[in-house]
């Protein structure tokens, strides 16, 4: 009897073995909240997963091993997610530039259905310099990642990385500049430039940094009001030190016919989109479309990856307290 039981356990262990041997991936927990006007906010058992192509997450044979979140500059603590651009390893600084997605407890991505709803997040951009982009956005990825969401598969966006899909850049920012941009797609035709609201571009040169003090944390509320089932605008407000600061909105988005426009963006929000969060910089454009010239106060050349790495090795962004649901429901304390 005894040995038979042991044998059964051994068989069970061997059957379960391969997953253990490869080191099943532990997804860092990141609780979020889904809110309704009537029921308040309910905690969701969500976690994050690194994109499948993340460095350190594949072995020499090219197959995925348990992703090393620490080596990729990703950590969570309570409801806060920190993404660091550079990670120290011995005496060298490795560019990690992580991108993660919000995962549900069933192993699929969380599909946020935001038409007529709002999405709120607390942010800390104090250590995000010129040339860097802390991006908190939505892509119309498939819930199952067209494969295995638990392994970070199936990325898509309106620049057609992966494949072409609707993208809503809720918040792209550093400590000096910010933009919120819709990128609707009609099939494989995407509005790659998108329809953006950037306060600096609109002449509010002291808004991002002073009116909203980016050296301290604050709350970002993005609303997607609908009218007759159609997205009517994308609006933004901030809350800092208990004070509400209204900002701008986007009320049209290119041509409805060719790329889907605001209606197309709203339809994607209605079907549900996946929350993607990343920190990145780039040598080619140096984020000038976001933060220099008419777009922001950063000097040309300031935002090169080499400069950022040398001057700001600790570059990181923090997102916490992610809530979504009925308009007005996410900011009630
Ligand atoms: C989260 O997990 C707890 C403990 O397993 C469970 O009681 C709760 O219902 C879960 N919440 C949701 C929204 O699924
Ligand atoms: C999906 O990915 C996870 C994480 O890497 C892994 O543990 C799981 O076995 C994979 N599932 C399938 C069906 O491949």
TrEMBL record:
It comes from the Eukaryota. The keyword Glycoprotein applies. InterPro entries: ConA-like_dom_sf (IPR013320), Glyco_hydro_7 (IPR001722), Glyco_hydro_7_sf (IPR037019). GO terms for biological process: cellulose catabolic process. One of its GO terms (molecular function) is cellulase activity. Keywords: Carbohydrate metabolism, Cellulose degradation, Glycoprotein, Glycosidase, Hydrolase, Polysaccharide degradation, Signal. It catalyses: Endohydrolysis of (1->4)-beta-D-glucosidic linkages in cellulose, lichenin and cereal beta-D-glucans. Its EC number is 3.2.1.4. Residues 1-23 form the signal peptide. Pfam families: Glyco_hydro_7. Belongs to the glycosyl hydrolase 7 (cellulase C) family. This is cellulase.
